Amino acid sequence: MFSVRVVSVINYKGGVGKTTLTANVGAELAFRGKKVLLIDLDPQASLTFSLVRPEYWQQNLEAEKTIKKWYESFDSSSPLSLSSLMTRAPHIKDYPNGGVLRFIPSHLGLINVDLELATELGGASLKQSKINYLRVHRRLAEGLKEEALSEFDVILIDCPPNFNVVTKNAIVASDSVLIPAKADYLSTLGIDHLQRSLRELVADYNEYAQLESGEDNAEFIDPQTLGVVFTMIQFYGGQPIAALRPYIRQIAALGVPVFDSLLREAKTLFAGSPSGGLPLVLRAGKTPTEKQLVKELEDLVSEFLLKLGK
Q: Is 221 within 8 Å of 206 (Cβ atoms)?
């Protein structure tokens, strides 16, 4: 077992296969014997509903077992533990090689939690504002220090398509950032903007951390961009079509790492969240496109592990 690695999956632009990527990478890692925890921080709850049906969520999870409930519990004298919210995906078994997959569900009301967190950032003085900034942004990072979570090898956080306070919680808690993207103009523009936002967050956070604790005791953050994963690629002759190649080169020119593994276009798989509770990578592909996509996902996970240094 290796020490837990926390990876946020994020892109400003929706519709790039973020949730499908998170679910399939997590499932394949579990199949390979890793202990994996998925955290759904997106109020759309697409990751959650890709693993359980809405009626199951309503009956068993909505009231007491979501990340929204965890954030809200800080208003009480007894905050919940993250481990108390862990749920097993009904259609994904534990594997004899030790692989497991658990997830922490999201809630459609999580957007209100973000607004409430934003109100906690102020203070009567500049010093108090900085203390509040660190306390709010560290909340998830502190939660992940729980002993019960140290058994996991990889924690994947499915972030909302924005850079709000909840997303910043994920970044502060993360070792790495994974960016799914389409090879088009808007995605290219969004990745450049995302990189600037990441740098600004790290600089602000570390400045406040140093002021709070001093140079020697500050808990600095340094999340690394693991890479951009291009999804929904159209191929011709085994290569991305000519119209897509300039966008792939543009991202590399920005100095952002790019995965060699590319995922082909499959609209029924990437347009929305997967259904049936079983990610594609754990199913036998029925069509040639599905079979090829499964192979590409497997190659991607191998590259993912190499980039993690594991």
A: yes
